[in-house]
Amino acid sequence: MKEPVLMAEREENNQWRDRGLKRKFPGNQEWMRGGGGRGGGRGGGERGGGRGWRRGGRGGGGRGGGEERFGKGSGEGRRGGLGVRRGWGGRRGGEERDGKGNGGGRREGLGEQGGRGGRGGGEGGDKGGGEGRRGGVGGRGGWGGRRGGEERDGKGNGEGGREGLDEQGGRGTRGGGEGGDRKRLDALSVGYFRRVRERLDEGFPEDEEKVLFVENVLAEVKGQAAVLALDVTGSVTLQRLLPLASPSQVGEVLAELGGESGSDLKMISYDKCGGHVVESALRQVSRWRENSSLEEKAATTEEAEDCGILESQVLCLCSLVKEHCAEFIRHTHGSHVVRTLIQVLAGCLGPARTDTAHTGVRNRTVTPQLTNFEAPTSFWWELKYLSNSLMENINVCVTDALASPVLQTMLTVCHRNRPKLCKQLNKGIMGYLTSLSSAPGVSPLLVFMKDPASSRLIETVIQLSHKALLRDLYKNHLQGHLINLAIHPIANFLIQRFTAATANCKVFPKVFDELAQGLEAILAEGNMGVIVQLTDSCAEHDGKQKAMMQHLLSAFHCAEPASRHTECLPLFLSLLTHEVYYTSQTAEGDTPTERPLSSICYHGSRLVQSLAKFKDRSLLLSSMRSLTPADLLILGTDQTGSHVLQLLVTSSSDKGRGKILRRLEGQYVQMACSRYGSRVLEAIWNSANVPQRKNIAKELVSSETQLRSNQFARHVWAKFALSHFVKRRTQWQEVQMGESKKRKLFSDILD
């Protein structure tokens, strides 16, 4: 039977769809969006009909492909140090903080399987029992018939309607719970927005084409933005689309999401899909100056007359958050929206959650990179009002694992762009924490320092506080309690931040003297982060470097006799006491034994790197020179130990470097063939003088075949220009001399 659409109209529809997925002939909607093609559910039409028809119908049901999206909550597990294995009888480190995980990651199984889309509800979702949804199996035959599988609003056992000829309606099932009555995208729309996402992935060669495409898709979004934001496929598509839209277009989407009164934004923000859309829209405020003249014409409120509809929608959301502040900051998804809103109001944005979702364990000591932008003037006051709302709910922010990161975000952005406000907030938080009642003679602050949620907030306060507040904190609350806090599995992280913050303060000598008395107890507990941070702080405070080294020698049992001093480096690297490392228990008693360097651990490497920053490094260098060439090779090819060898060699004088390089002779080939050793060898080469380079090159060229065939050593061969060394040694030496003179010249200028 012939198609009901003329061939000319069909071809023109194909062209319009390829350009922007928007239909020119509304009467042919089924042909453009659902029909024909090779999808699950051939709702009608023929297979042929041009390239556009084949792309048209990948039929509906499925929902994207295995993306993990939703909030990992706040309060990720914290891990302690690697701990001390033997020597102190201490526990291993690695205790976890935040044992309950606090809103740990929800997953949405998005898998697309033919025409059957399955969706799991994570771990129960936030709308009742885990939702499960199956799209229709799809219609067979017919011309313009739509796919079956349309859901009812109830508990979802409604069969899809039969339309067209010989169409089989699928069955859509949905879990019960409160989420059972909200609207969902139909299968055709799901397929359409999936194709939109695929087109966005391909990119656009010209800006004009991109603008036209975004315009066309947003025309399809209009009228169903809320339903789209609450759908998995629609949410992901909107998040990809909004950064390409103009600020006025983003404002229009937010306006539709908020409804007539704007209160619908609360429901959208609380949804695991919708919250991401709201965040993505808020992040576009950094582009609010684009097309500002057009936005001014579209503004309908007094506040929007300056910057447009996008600003007015942000202000609307601010009012909503202030009105329901306690509820927002305690919500799994709503709290993330508030955190993004705070960044926008302050005029600085961090990386999007989708950019950091798969980066592994976050480094606790690294502050997220923030990017400044010029925010509208009205945001200046809104940030102040929102901070007041948070302080009114300080009892929630201190104890709740979801609300605490919201206040931490406020402190971080204010420290960057509103320092006076940050100072007021820090003072208010500490005033609240210290005003609560506790046991007689015990500061209430000590109780909060051992709580997972509260300790994170106090850490942020310490990092962003001025010296007077730090001095008062030590004098009135921490003095005499540092060791007990340092051996606590949670509070030790706070002591690390406090030690780092006071490194350049007058109070640091007192902090050092108190912690140094319990150095061995801290080592036995396995909280090596405290020791490493204390050593780092000593590197900035010259007066305590010698004392720190002596306390470490005593803790590792190598202070007496003095002959043991040269054996300290292996002990520091392996975090083992002298007795354990150098002595084996035999039937006749303790017998000193020589053993190869082993058990190099991360915190041991960090400790030695911190000690290498001291002014007097003679003890470390003499201990290194006492190592055998085999031990130096182990150190140079180890993942963590290689950093130690590189730092000690490159920071030494020419004379001291020469002594170490003579001990390394015969090991250069094996180092060059190692993943980590090759990097150390390159660093040594860059810091070596011409005679030292010549000696290294002589040893390497003798194993040319081995070096050229190794995946790491071949780069060493090329960077050292060893082919020229073999064939044109005089020219090679002249080039090296020239590089040496340039390096010396630049070092003199920098010094």
UniProtKB/TrEMBL annotation:
What protein name is recorded for this chain? Answer: Nucleolar protein 9
Q: Which SUPFAM superfamilies match?
A: ARM repeat
What spans are recorded as compositionally biased (Basic and acidic residues)? Answer: 1-19, 65-79, 92-110, 124-134, 147-169
**Pfam families, sorted:** PUF_NOP9
The region called Disordered is annotated at: 1-183
Name the residue ranges with Gly residues bias: 33-43, 80-91, 111-123, 135-146
The record's annotation in InterPro entries points to: ARM-like (IPR011989), ARM-type_fold (IPR016024), NOP9 (IPR040000), Pumilio_RNA-bd_rpt (IPR001313)
Report each Pumilio repeat as a residue range: 220-256, 626-662, 663-698
Top-level taxon = Eukaryota
Tell me which UniProt keywords the record has, alphabetically.
Repeat
